[in-house]
Amino acid sequence: MTENLTWNAGGTPITIRKDLRVPMRDGLELVADAYEGTEQKPRPALVALSPYGKELQALALTTPPQRRPSPMWDGCIEAGDIARIVNEDYVHVIGDLRGSGGSGGEHIGNYNAGGVSLGQDAYDFIEWVAAQPWCDGNVGMVGISYFGSMQVLAAAERPPSLKAVFVSGGHYDFYETTYHGGIMWFMPRAAREGRGGDSGWAFTDGVKSRMIEEFSPEELKAKVDERLADPDVAGWPNLVHVLNYPKNHEAWFDIVMNQFDGEWYEERNPNELAGQIDIPVWLQLDQGRGWTLDSTIEVFDRVQGPKKLTIGSYPPMQSRPFVEEHDKMFRWYDYWLKGIDNGIMDEPAVDVFVEGSREVVTAEQWPPKPVEHRPLYLRPRHTLSTEPELMGTEFAHPDGFYQAPLTVTDDVQILSWSTPVFEEPVEMIGTGAAHVFVEIDQPDTNFILRLWDYAPTGMRQLITTGYLKASHRELDEARTSEGDPRHPHTRSVPVEPGTIEEYVIRLYPFAATFMPGHRLTAELSNAEPLADEHNSLLPPDAFHLPVGRPVTHKIYRDAEHPSRLVLPFTTQ
Predict the structure, then answer these.
(1) InterPro entries, alphabetically (predicted)?
(2) pLDDT in tens, 514-536
(3) Domains of the chain
């Protein structure tokens, strides 16, 4: 270990303790760097843990924050603003998880499921930090995304010195992190492999596959052959490659092989562990990443101690190095780690930025206002109406589109329906649903629904999204309510071609006011456009597995088939 290096970051002198060795209970050591002020005294510590490499996180001292679509944006520089943390008189401790960077051991599966619990390692790491002479015994945590998930895993283990956490943009429901409505999402591949704006995991010997460890070669081959029988998978080169050569990307192989929810994802799922957390928790996430906003709200509802929830403004991708939300974080930690009575706990527990009106709504719960779920019906001439269709199928002919596989075309077919221009502000906050009656000529397809706010100028902003693989249409009736559908995603039920089925698509939570002169537009497709206003803000790999066969879709919207949106209108 090299101690007491000095660094001057924009006028902030910093003492750096490099390559600290942190012992784990099983005899392995993790490696860490600690950043603090030059005055030698005990301070509260903010711990950041991930497999992305502490040396990458050190770029926060030298790289100005970048936002998408900057090509310099690197999604893995997520441990926080080192210079500011030091300037606020905390010690910033950045550690490499086992099997990554300079740390010992190996990593098995995603989030080390099947190996040593990452929460267990975090417990040992936090207690070691708290015992050091440069720490005053009070520990919090810092960081976005993977670093955020680690905070929940750590807090669930209840290390005595972890006094509070402030979690930004974490991933909690591990199935929903990779399969949206049963449709595979490629962005987790980027973090694991180092693609599309992410440096990737800094693992020393790779991540060991649980599937390879648990099944014989013969059993595994049979499972791989079954997965390759899916035409969506067989039509995508990366998936064919990883299924034939799994040791190149073993963590991604495990995800591809487990397309259904269940025990494999739940083993160390932070959603399931959140009920064990009784320390103060502040959860924060921006809109536009509906995929993790759902589980952020679920964790908020489950944690047992003092808690706060912040839902910020669109767009979803914060700066890298990650520097946002530090103002709230330091007020939180000044109160819980330094004992400064700054009034933070006298303020409402929930604050939500409402797109459109650009107001911040506060309350003690989510949603922050009473809501009533009301329908907007799909009607002829691509319109949305509060009134249902009265004509039968023979007069209200279905809308439709034919989508060729993206292996042979770049043209993504999109159907849209729009409201009339709003004459008064219309506010919606909460979850929603789309009930669409559809006939397809194949056993499966994707449904991708996106809601947009169109301004009179023609500019538009994404409000929320919904995804559903047709073969995953089963509902969890016990958990489903009006405007809040839930799908178990535990099996595939192929569609009988030529039959009309009702598909209930969950719309991720959102908060938006449609201002006078604006209109709401719903777009339905089975693939995503290659470029538009929304996905230009995301890393290049942030798209979903397209359908690998040609599909004709007929969307019925008549008296017998009331296709509709069900949206959360606020009532006060």
Answers:
(1) AB_hydrolase_fold, CocE/Ser_esterase, Galactose-bd-like_sf, Xaa-Pro-like_dom, Xaa-Pro_dipept_C, Xaa-Pro_dipeptidyl-ppase/CocE
(2) 999 999 999 999 998 877 777 66
(3) 2-206+267-347 (3.40.50.1820), 371-570 (2.60.120.260)
